[in-house]
Structure to design on (171 residues):
């Protein structure tokens, strides 16, 4: 799952938008910082889960190996005390595996909660990014309109001045 914000290339603008100020930028920035913290928490949760699952695999492998040895030793008429100790160790390994499994279930729930929170926050960030783009587009349209109006006034002034020079005063 990719929850990192995507950086789409900014559309080329035919006007200068350096004067654009996005009023919600501080809110967007705080949301982005929160997202960064959530992503770090999610990464830590996933790492802890992977470590727990690796430890569970180790315990299971030790259990299987000890069970196999205990089964072989039983055939060879092992000392009952040693056999009891081996069975006790197997019980300990099973208990340890159950504890790890409970821990793993808690970690899965935490990871899933963090994922959902990241997805919800990413949707809000995407909405804010779209809102910012829309506001920037609107600002560019306004700048274009002002420039167009200014060019029209200039043209009319030049036309009037040029028209006044061509017209001879009538007597």
């Amino acid at each position: 799952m990719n929850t990192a914000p995507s950086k789409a290339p900014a559309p080329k603008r035919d006007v200068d938008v350096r004067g654009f100020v996005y009023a919600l930028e501080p809110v967007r920035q705080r949301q982005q910082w929160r997202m960064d913290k959530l992503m770090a928490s999610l990464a830590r949760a996933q790492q802890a889960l992977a470590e727990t699952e690796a430890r569970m695999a180790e315990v299971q492998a030790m259990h299987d190996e000890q069970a196999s040895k205990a089964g072989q030793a039983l055939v060879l008429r092992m000392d009952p005390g040693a056999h009891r100790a081996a069975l006790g160790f197997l019980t300990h390994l099973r208990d340890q595996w159950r504890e790890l499994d409970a821990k793993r279930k808690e970690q899965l729930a935490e990871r899933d909660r963090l994922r959902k929170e990241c997805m919800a926050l990413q949707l809000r960030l995407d909405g804010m990014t779209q809102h910012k783009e829309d506001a920037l587009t609107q600002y560019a349209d306004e700048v274009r309109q002002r420039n167009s109006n200014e060019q029209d006034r200039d043209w009319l002034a030049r036309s009037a001045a040029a028209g006044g020079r061509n017209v001879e005063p009538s007597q």
Summary: The chain has a mean pLDDT of 87.
